Structure formats: structure tokens, C-alpha cells
Amino acid sequence: MEIRHLLTFMTIVEIGSYTGAASKLGYTQSTITSHIQALEQEIGGELFTYIKRKLQLTYIGRELIPLAEDLLATHEQIKNMKSTQEIKGVLKVAAPESLTISRIGPIIREYSLKYPQVKLILSNGTCGQNQIDLISGRVDVAFMVYPELKQEKCVHYSLFEEKIVLVSSTHGPEHFDQYKVNNANYFFITNEEGCSYRTMFEKYLLRHDIYNFQTMELWSIEAIKKIVMSGIGFAVLPYITVKEEVESGKLKLLRHNEKFEPIYSHMLVKKKKWLSPAVEAFIELVLKTTAESNKDTVCS
Length: 300
Fold this sequence. Notes:
Number of helices: 11
Largest sheet: 5 strands, mixed
Structural class: alpha/beta
Order of helices and strands: HHHEEHEHEHEEEHEHEHEHEEH
CATH topology of the largest domain: D-Maltodextrin-Binding Protein, domain 2
Distance between the termini: 59 Å
Shape: elongated
């Protein structure tokens, strides 16, 4: 069994096709096929199958994933033994837009200045998608805004409690009850389905038989804030994302009697026997920045 065969296997798992894996690794498709056939001969069973023309892992393939991850991580650790103090390589981070624009930006900047030999790739997705990308190995670190988490496959760090607020235009109603009474005249302005605080708010409305809000789904938090400023509705967002607009008088906090479930920002890292120096340095910086921010909040 060769390391390159396992690398080929994990690349197919990550990308979802032989053709994509061949392109990423710089192999011909016949070479990719021969690598998988060699693995299958040693293991004694098929790793992939096609269901309705779509490539799927077999049971044996799914069982191989954690073992291959451990072997590849050990191999990477051995390769880096001579330069364990040198922080370089590629670091892939996934985060929701709300954290990207409010908390992660300064961390990314400081990390890039401190470790210029690391190529940092940041992707934005819903919290659920970020977690999937982490578990599948597409990213090294994932951030989420979510209620309290209990994780088995990931190392979990709780960072901040994220205050969720209702915001409206400065000339709109003062209290959410006024929106509920006139719900046909106002939009609930929100981001894509799968967003944790949108889901939390919509579940609350259903539990309390609050219906008939028109929903306007937009592509970014900045777009949501601009539309709310126009006065056609309200939004539900983490306070950190609207803090500047509230303090400058462009938006106002909407008073309400609703009690929402606490939501927190989290950092997740997949459980591995070995983490690259680049990942460890990033984790250390995030935790240091979080501790300093929480200390400043307490002191103020």
C-alpha cells in the first residue's frame, strides 16, 4: 500500500469524481483508476460504486476514510519533522458571513502578516455547510454561529455569546408587536435558508403561531442592512454585525418581548492525532484574540 494511493482516495472523496481528482493531483484518469484498483486489491473490496451515475462510497470506502486520514496525517508529520518550527503550507478556513465581516477579518489579517508563507483560503457558507466541509476534509477549520454544541468528531471551542437582535429603520415602528399586527405590510428581510439565527427565529414564530410575514431573502448582510434602512421591514441579525449602524443612527434596535435561545460563535477543528503547524498557529491566534476581547468586554 502506497501513500499516494491513499492520497488519491481522499482526493476523490473530497472532490467527488475521478476526473476532478486527476486534475487536482496532476495525474491521468487511468493513473487515478490504477491507484484505486491497487487499494481495492489490498483491502479486498470496492471503495466506490455508481448509483444513478453518481459516484458513491461503499461501506468499505467509508470505513477507510478515518484510517487514511490518520496515515496521511502521520506521513505529513514525518515530512515536517525537520521544519516543525516553520509555519507554511495551505490553511483552509470556512466561516459564515456574519463572523467573517465582524470577527474573523482582523484575525485573518494578523495571521497573514505573521505567517506570510501560509496560503490562507477563506470560504463563506452556512453553518451546516461549514461543518460538513470540515468533517469531509475540505477545510481545516470551521466557524459556526449556533446554539450550544456537543461534538464527537470535532474539537470544539466556544468563543462568544452572540447577541441576536431585531433591527429596523430609524423611522419604523418602535416595537416588534407593531410589526406583528401589521405583518402584511412589512417584510422579514433575511439571508439564505440554513442560517442558524434565521432558523431559530422562524421556529420561534411557528411555535407561537405568528404567521404571514412576507420574507425577502437577500444574498448578503450588507444588502439586508441597506434594505432595512429603506423602511420596508425588519431583520434578525447578530448585534456585532449591526453595531456600527446602530451607534451611528442608521438603524435602530427593535424592542420586543420575545425570548430567544442563546446563540454562540464556535470554532471547530477535526479530531486528528496531528495538526499542521499552520493550523495550530491559527487556533492559538483565535483563542488569544477571543480571550483578549472577552477581557476587554468584562473590564468595560
